[in-house]
Amino acid sequence: MTAAPAVKPLDPTKVRAEIPILHQEIRGNPLVYLDNAATTQKPAAVIDAVADFYRRDNANIHRGVHTLSQRATDAYEGARGRVRGFLGAAEDAEIVFVRGATEGINLVANSLGRSIGAGDEILISWMEHHSNIVPWQLLCERTGAVLKVAPIDDTGALILEEFEKLLSERTKVVAMVHQSNSLGTVNPVREITERAHAVGAKVLIDGAQATSHRAVDVREIGCDFYVTSAHKMFGPSGIGVLYGRRALLEEMPPWQGGGDMILTVTFEKTEYNELPHKFEAGTPHLSGPIGLAAAIDWIEALGLDAIAAHEDDLLRYGTEALSEIPGVTIVGTAPGKSSVLSFTMDGVHPHDIGTIVDQEGVAIRTGHHCTQPVMDRFGIPATARASFAAYNTREDVDALVRAVRKVAEVFA
Ligand code: C6P
After folding, report:
1. Ligand 1 pocket: which of 237, 340, 370 to mutate (most atoms <8 Å of CB)?
2. The whole model's pTM is what?
3. What are the two backbone dihedrals, phi and then psi, of residue 172, each rounded to the nearest 5 degrees?
């Protein structure tokens, strides 16, 4: 039997050195950035790739015969190929650039949504981000379809048997988060997809919190759609990806009209462009995919297995240390959870936790994290949430724990 190849551990201090924004003080303390689930900071390589594009290659794409336009088109389409490889899609035509995960879900809800009718069912889970709830509610309002919600248990894990009970031939779409932003739960997306396909439902996976933490292969998952946002994976904001299986994207009508999504236009009839351009109306975020491709290069140079191992270590270390502070309760304890440490403190509103730790230079997010149903499920208004990325260190976790101890002292 051959042993699995060892993962080359990453050196977080070296990784940190590549992120310019981290090298500053906040209120007289070194910045400790633990709000990565909201957005990640950018490596110099990504900032340079975007700046170089504007210094050297900027022009509108798919339109000009001049050299700059061709260079910009090549860079933009090259980035599409880079994303295809990263996500394991079969062809570039299956990669649609969108503004982010939110827009990707809205695209599917609006376009695939045209085939949904009264009495059809959309199945989501209790741990979804509002981005994976509201577009489906809007669809249900428009069509008379029904939104069904699979419950989670007290650890924040999906209850698979209950999920399965909600599946039927009425289920047209299953839309499920890959990794929960407020609990850290990682869903068994392959199994979910298999079960959903067994009743003929289409499957959309919201990967906004997954793609900077673990290797994703959409064909291995088997899903029909997968969405993610570049800004959560060290890339620019305002750009994201919708992966869709070609056969489905071919059938789906465009959801926005404009330049670049057409082949011919007359007042009588418009013929749509081929995939993926049919879904990219208007001048797109030109530099976004270039920055995203640079971010993918950066992630792959570190290695997603090494990133996952490093973040698991931070999560274990942080969970142990925070749990020792009297009054702290960790929210989200599902086995196999990843990179998110949500917690509450007895008698302290999470916003006060956030404000006090900020005085110590520690950036965390507090609130409902756009997952109000999760807060309702746990009977709390909000949590404080530390979320890790490849460049965080055990020293960052120590700084968080020191700052939370201060909160405990202030409210003692
Ligand atoms: N979660 C957080 O602090 P956009 O805004 O389109 O890039 O991503 C939306 C989104 C969708 N799904 C999940 C699981 C998410 O976590 C997010 C964004 C951020 O947790 C901002 S609310």
Report:
1. 370
2. 0.98
3. -100, -35
Pocket probe mutation, ligand 1, options 209, 211, 385, 388, max atoms within 8 Å of Cβ: 209
- Give the list of residues 6+ apart from residue 404 with CB closer than 8 angstroms, or none: 322, 325, 328, 345, 353, 357
Average pLDDT of the segment spanning 234-251: 98
What is the reported pLDDT for 22?
98
Torsion from C-alpha of 357, 411, 379, 367, nearest 10 degrees: -30
Q: Is the CB of 363 under 6 A from ligand 1?
A: no
> What integer is the mean pLDDT of 195-204?
98
205 - beta bridge partners? 176, 226
With a CB cutoff of 8 Å and minimum separation 6, the contacts of 276 are: 80, 92, 93, 94, 95, 96, 97, 249
Pick the atom of ligand 1 nearest to 181's CA: 16
Return the pLDDT at 7: 80
Which of 35, 229, 292, 341 for a ligand 1 pocket mutation test, highest count of atoms within 8 Å of Cβ? 229
Domain residue limits, the chain: 12-38+303-410, 47-300
Mean pLDDT of the chain: 97
Q: What's the confidence (pLDDT) of residue 1?
A: 44
Average pLDDT over residues 140-154: 98
Q: Is the CB of 177 under 6 A from ligand 1?
A: yes
Q: How remote is the CA of residue 129 from the centroid of ligand 1, in Å? A: 7
370 is catalytic: yes
Tokens read off for 315 = 């999560």
Q: pLDDT per residue over 389-411, tens digit each? A: 999 999 999 999 999 999 999 99
Q: What percent of the chain has pLDDT over 70?
A: 99
Q: Is 80 in the pocket of ligand 1 (CB under 6 A)?
A: no
Q: Which of 44, 370, 375, 380 is catalytic?
A: 370
**Domain spanning 47-300 has what CATH number?**
3.40.640.10
The answer to whether the CB of 111 is under 6 A from ligand 1 is no
**What average pLDDT does range 108-124 have in this prediction?**
98
Rounded Cα distance, 226 and 190, in Å:
12
Atom of ligand 1 nearest to the CA of 178: 14
177-199: average pLDDT: 98
Q: Which CATH number fits domain 12-38+303-410: 3.10.20.740, 2.60.120.260, 3.10.310.40, 3.90.1150.10?
A: 3.90.1150.10
